[in-house]
Amino acid sequence: METCRQRVDAALARWLPATSATSAALQQAMRYAVLDGGKRVRPFLVYAAGEAAGGRIGTLDGPACAVELIHAYSLVHDDLPAMDNDALRRGKPTCHVAFGEATALLAGDALQTLAFEILARDPGLTVSPEIRIALIARLATAAGMAGMAGGQAIDLEAVGREIGLAELERMHRLKTGALIRAAVALGGLAGGADDAALEALDRYAAAIGLAFQIQDDVLDVESDTATLGKTQGADMALNKPTYPALLGLEPARERAREQCALAIGALEEFDARADQLRALARYVIERVH
User: What does this protein need as cofactor (predicted)?
Assistant: First the structure.
């Protein structure tokens, strides 16, 4: 993961605009929101899925950057006062605290559009035009109403009211899981996976996407702000529905372990090139931040 993090960070630094006299605050806010922080789980999934499919790592830099930029933009907007109103992200003040709400809004917008510019223009993405279009479409769907944005809307509507397990899982399969599934799909597509491999990779991604969110909810209860790098207990303070609140802490952990096992089982037809994906499934439920 550290090797992939260094690789995608270098690529992100190249794509992000350098600070200049024109729109300097916006450029600074974009770099602030993306660089110097983050686990880079989603870019790692792009690289690992591409490797499992037999792809070349140089072809995967653009998709890895695109997925991380969508993730970063979503965090900038989620932290805004109109949304979660949070002041800490990745161990430092949130983008709107550092640069003001208007600049943070624009930074999020600019990061989102840069993601699609990379997929459209990256010269290192040596795939057919049809695959390039498929990558753009897949990421757009995951980021929009049928994915991340739709899940966030359900999350906001659920504050302060009781919801069942099925609705909670639907919300998180959109809000968190859709982008994780897109990361794996982009890696698989760019790596040359066939339809059967793509279907297996998607089953893997759906399971770890859910496990990832369950573990996030568990950590919000039992970790601390310094370890998390964001405000501990924020979901409880906002009276948001979570897996520990609905199931209890230990049953929530067990559900995450079940999803991890499902993810690893989905990769049974893959050889050792998928070991990075198998290891990540275990990391998702063992991480402490």
Answer: Mg(2+)
Threshold 0.85, pTM exceeds: yes
84: nearest Cα among 135, 155, 147, 27: 155
Q: Where are the beta strands (DSSP E) in the chain?
A: 88-89, 92-93
Query: Rounded distance, CA 46 to CA 142, Å?
Result: 14
DSSP letter (8 states) at residue 40: -
Is residue 142's pLDDT more than 60? yes
The answer to whether residues 53 and 184 touch, using CB atoms and an 8 Å cutoff, is no
If you write DSSP's letter for every residue of 60-119 in order, what string do you get? HHHHHHHHHHHHHHHHHHHTSTTTT--SEETTEE-HHHHH-HHHHHHHHHHHHHHHHHHH
| Residue in this structure with the two tokens 């794996």, named with its chain if needed | 184
Q: Cα dihedral angle (179, 175, 250, 287), rounded to 10 degrees?
A: 40
Q: Domain residues for 165?
A: 2-286
Please give the tally of structural domains in the chain: 1
Those residues with Cβ within 8 angstroms of residue 123's Cβ, 6 or more apart along the chain or in another chain? none
- pLDDT, tens only, 238-269: 567 889 988 999 999 999 999 999 999 999 99
Give CA separation, 50 vs 112, 114, 146, 248, 256, in Å. 23, 22, 24, 37, 25
CATH of the domain at 161: 1.10.600.10
d(CA 141, CA 96): 26
What is the Cα Rg of the chain in Å? Answer: 18
